[in-house]
């Protein structure tokens, strides 16, 4: 099959069976700026808006893309070359389908001073600014507070009109809007953080307060920061995904593959209006926290259970981890015995049912989600996804054997060598510090716990003792033997 280069002009030429926009993209006008145009946003938030547009609605809510990292320039070039269209390829265990979405209409220049981004957010048609900048991108200390000492934050505080961070750009744009009497916009985080809206509010307001207390007060009083829970497994794009799109008849420079599941639960707190995303499957709820807790503590933490063990055993994908009896048994035992009992049910779903659901999703062999991608930035993901359950169980006097083993697996992985002797290439913003701690912990296990992330845990014998014991056993017995021994415990 000859692949058709993707563009607005060629939509009519795409193969039969590829779903394309049912709206005239020429009639769309902007309503949102989204910062962080990775795969997840395009498979998730952009899709919900696209389907709403398919119903003839939300035509004035189109997305303007933006990035604040130099590497975002390449993504901009790719997407602009195809009129900001994206091919979404849904991979169920039994079939593959393709859909081209068109809810994004522009991608701003990526600049050191973010001048174009600031100017665009300051225009009155922008009513929502949303972000997917990863859970580690919100400038938090190990204790979860705003990190005012970070070099990026200090630079933005010194140069508020030409900031280097997304948050500095938001503050600068809001200052222009306030001064022009244009009013605020809503700021919406779509990252995997408990209380992501509250964290985004704290980051933006705290940064503003470093230079302009009155502006900080205005933002805090007028802008809204809705909390949300987002869920869809979206692998990275590589040669295999590009070839898959071509085999479907589409020459797309940036296709996205994703599972056949999406969920978006949003707090209905928008100061300048919003699209009716609930018409296309999203849920507006006052109980976002319960959905967040279930997803973050079970799915996101579950990913870490699998990925660290999988890296050590040279298992390349998450579905491959689920096929491995020892890894799967470890995952299921920790999920059901240690995590699920501390998670509340949400409408239509108990924690046990959710554990089964995510097990099925993780096992989908059509989703080539690498253990390396899932294990990336463990310094944020363990502290954000795994540690809260550890702390809650310890407060209740409950054991943490499996979760302590999960931390020991992460420590063992950070040595940087798999059990077959191959190297684990740097996979964390703090890789060198993690590797140094992990190597020292080979002979002195408590060394791993001396890192700031373990404040309050290192001195708790109910956690420290099993952690050290598991880490020693991983060193002497190997990962598979230890996982099997743990799963056989009653």
UniProtKB/TrEMBL annotation:
<dbReference type="Pfam" id="PF01232">
    <property type="entry name" value="Mannitol_dh"/>
</dbReference>
<dbReference type="InterPro" id="IPR000669">
    <property type="entry name" value="Mannitol_DH"/>
</dbReference>
<dbReference type="Pfam" id="PF08125">
    <property type="entry name" value="Mannitol_dh_C"/>
</dbReference>
<dbReference type="InterPro" id="IPR008927">
    <property type="entry name" value="6-PGluconate_DH-like_C_sf"/>
</dbReference>
<dbReference type="InterPro" id="IPR013131">
    <property type="entry name" value="Mannitol_DH_N"/>
</dbReference>
<dbReference type="InterPro" id="IPR013328">
    <property type="entry name" value="6PGD_dom2"/>
</dbReference>
<dbReference type="GO" id="GO:0016616">
    <property type="term" value="F:oxidoreductase activity, acting on the CH-OH group of donors, NAD or NADP as acceptor"/>
</dbReference>
<dbReference type="InterPro" id="IPR013118">
    <property type="entry name" value="Mannitol_DH_C"/>
</dbReference>
<dbReference type="InterPro" id="IPR036291">
    <property type="entry name" value="NAD(P)-bd_dom_sf"/>
</dbReference>
<feature type="domain" description="Mannitol dehydrogenase C-terminal">
    <location>
        <begin position="288"/>
        <end position="473"/>
    </location>
</feature>
<keyword id="KW-0560">Oxidoreductase</keyword>
<protein>
    <submittedName>
        <fullName>Mannitol dehydrogenase family protein</fullName>
    </submittedName>
</protein>
<dbReference type="InterPro" id="IPR050988">
    <property type="entry name" value="Mannitol_DH/Oxidoreductase"/>
</dbReference>
<feature type="domain" description="Mannitol dehydrogenase N-terminal">
    <location>
        <begin position="32"/>
        <end position="278"/>
    </location>
</feature>
